[in-house]
Structure formats: C-alpha cells, structure tokens
Amino acid sequence: MWPKQLNAPLEVVDPEIADIIEHEKARQWKGLELIPSENFTSLSVMQAVGSVMTNKYSEGYPGARYYGGNEYIDMAETLCQKRALEAFRLDPAKWGVNVQPLSGSPSNFQVYTALLKAHDRIMALDLPHGGHLSHGYQTDTKKISAVSIFFETMPYRLDESTGYIDYDQLEKSATLFRPKLIVAGASAYARLYDYARIRKVCDKQKAIMLADMAHISGLVAAGVIPSPFDYADVVTTTTHKSLRGPRGAMIFFRKGLKEAVFPGLQGGPHNHTITGLAVALKQATTPEYKAYQEQVMSNSAKFAETLVKHGYELVSGGTENHLVLVNLKNKGIDGSRVEKVLEAVHIAANKNTVPGDVSAMVPGGIRMGTPALTSRGFVEEDFAKVAYFFDLAVKLALKIKGEAQGTKLKDFVAAMQSSAIQSELSKLRHDVEEYAKQFPTIGNTMKMEVMLPYQTSIYLECGL
Ligand SMILES: *Cc1c(COP(=O)(O)O)cnc(C)c1O
C-alpha cells in the first residue's frame, strides 16, 4: 500500500504544491532576474539534488563515519572534494576542502568557531558599505548578527569619495584593534579586492586572513578575476551564486590549519547537495563554463556602460565583476521606491545601501548583477535592453513619487494603485515579460497548459 503511494508522482500526491512549483517556473521564465547572488543551476545538478542521496546519514568524513553503509556517499563526497580543488587549481598537498557546510552564513560561523576563541576580534567590511551579515554586523544599540554576540567585531569601510575600500584606514584600525581574523569579501562591491594588501595587514597583526568569495567564486573558478588563494589562509564560498551549483557552501583551508567543523557545528551532511555540487564543479572546469563567466563579465561591463549613458551614477564609477551598484541620489529617488516598481514590472533587483546613507530601511541604491540572465543566454545587447527597461522603471517611479499624497513609502505604494499608473505598470510589465520569454529557462521543463477545442486542456512538456 504505502510503497505505491510513496512512488506516486508529485502531481498526483500534492497538486497544490505541484501547482506552486509550476507558477515559480513561469515566474523564472517571464522575469528579468538581476539579483546578483542568484543563478539558475543546471538540470544535471538538480537531478543529483533530487536523488536518493538525500536519505543517508553520514556524520563524519569519508572513511571515518559514525554510521555504516556509506561506501557510495564516501565516493560522492571524495569526488566532490577532488573536483573542488581542481576547479580552483589548488594543490591537494597544500589545500584541503570541507564540502559539508549547509550554506554561506553557517560556513563563516564554522570558521570563526574552529579557529578563534569566543570574543576574539574580527574585522570585516561594514554591512552598509557592501559587507555581509555573517561577518558580524552590529549597530549602536543592537548586535544584529549572532557573530557579533559571540565575537568582537570592528568594521572597515569604503572611502566615500571614491567608492573603493579604504585600505589605509583599515590598516590604522587594525593597528589599534589588533584583530585575530580579517575577512576579505563582500556582497555589494563592484571592484576587485586587494588581497595582497589585506595579507600584509594580517601578517603585521598575526591575524588569520579569511577570504569569503561567496559572490565571485564562479568568476574565480573560471580565472576571469584574481584568486584569493594566493593570499588567504581560509577561503569560504557559497555554491549557489556565480558558481551556479546547488545551495550550499565550502570551506577551503591551508593544510595544517585546524580543520574541525564536525563535530563543532556540523551534524549529518546534506549528501544530495554534496552530490549536486560535485556535478556543478565538474561543469566548472569546462571550456563552456569559462566562456559563460567571460560573458558574465562582458555583460556586466556593457550593463554598467549603458546605465551610465542613461545618466546613472555607479558607486566606484563602474564595475570589475558581475555586479553594479547604482546610486540613485542624483535621480531624486531611493532604492526602496524603485525596488517596488521593479517588482511590479517583473524585474528582480534589490535595494541596497550606498555610501552616505543614513537609513538602511530607505537606502539610496539598487544592486544588480548578470550571472542569472547570462545563464539564460543574455548577451551584451540584451543587457543594453535591460538597462533601458530599468530606466523606464525609474522614470515611472519618479512619476509615482510626484503623484504621491505624502512622503512615506506607504503613500508611494498607494499612488501606485491609481488606474493610470496601473496601466503604465502593466504595459511595462508586458514588454519586460515578452522580452524575457524569448530566452530559454534553465533546468526545468515547463508544463504549459494548452486549451484545446471542446474545453479540454492538456499539458505539453516543452523544454524551453
Ligand atoms: C551570500 C553571502 C554569504 C551567505 O550565504 P548564505 O548561503 O545566504 O548564508 C556569506 N558571505 C557573503 C560575502 C555572501 O555574499
């Protein structure tokens, strides 16, 4: 009885969830995905992630597990580790890798707890200047990230006049703060890190250098931007951003450095994810992958150039990676309002703080990146078109702001509901969707409901 039910397909067992998934597929097809931390992983990765590898407990490491029955799990994890080192051209005599972390934030916490004592000092790029929560953000009154509860954190920041990291100030602060660990890595920084410079500061302070390449690891794997491995002691990365694998993370460490993550924070590894990651890492060493990452870079350059032509100001004046950070202040509007309009016209991007912002709730910028749409086959001219759609959305946001009855965000949202504005929004949304729909989706076969005569409908499988 139940074996039969357990083997029944999703559409039969749970039409409600199946329907939600179909809607999500359609959303990914019709929209312009510009969130720079997102990507579309391959069908082969998803097949591995959606496999029986999810069933097995395997606490420990290959060859040293708590439970039995792990011969194939060991093979998958060992292959994943080997491919991870190969993807980043690392010598297995010098580097090791842990492929078990569940995601980027816990992987960073695992590094801190493995290498530091409670309340040791950490320095990292300030969150409002492009850093990440998992590097220990706190405000005057509140420890926002748990990292800042268990460790003492001190930010370094951008030089607000240039939009580049202020390494001189970083060095001065480090002399006073004497950190045990310095993080080199960002979530909203369009420039390359000067790893050599941070290494020098670490050497002076006898601090550990952690490079968190979550956003840029795909670019590093393809060799289209400099690698942190020549300088860092430990390198963490998520696997689902530019790298284009399943959701997860990895920790690379120089051999000799304490590598204990289990049993510190890690219980049973997600073997389906590790197996999918092995597939993604195999793909990451192909010529197609290098070509893809070169296209990501070239699309980003074209996108930045077109935005500047449309009169937009970019933090740091441009980009050297996969993302742009637009400062909207010269346009007389903020990131929150523009984000609302973008969402209404099916463009996914996120509001972001820019240097000089006083409020993180109403930040002055928008962050956009090219990895996801490049996976769908967008090239330079397409990104010129995307910049054009973005400009139309900002102009519409300015118009709505002009019509709003008050200065609050909720007044803006109310003004968006007028029928004149609604029809402008739906026209732009239609144009955006028609454009996006021309491109293939990745990793899914869409079930398109096609109406036939006599009121019957069938599902056509079409691999778009
Ligand atoms: C995204 C990101 C992370 C965290 O990843 P999650 O998987 O969302 O926890 C950590 N560090 C940086 C720099 C990131 O951009």
UniProtKB/TrEMBL annotation:
**Pathway recorded for this protein:** One-carbon metabolism; tetrahydrofolate interconversion
* GO biological process, any: tetrahydrofolate interconversion
Q: What are its cofactors?
A: pyridoxal 5'-phosphate
| Residue span(s) of domain Serine hydroxymethyltransferase-like | 10-389
Q: Which residues carry this modification: N6-(pyridoxal phosphate)lysine?
A: K241
Annotated Pfam families? SHMT
Could you tell me which HAMAP family the record lists for this protein? SHMT
Give the protein family.
Answer: Belongs to the SHMT family.
Write out the function statement from the record: Catalyzes the interconversion of serine and glycine. Interconversion of serine and glycine.
Protein name per the record: Serine hydroxymethyltransferase
- What does UniProt list as this organism's lineage? Eukaryota, Viridiplantae, Streptophyta, Embryophyta, Tracheophyta
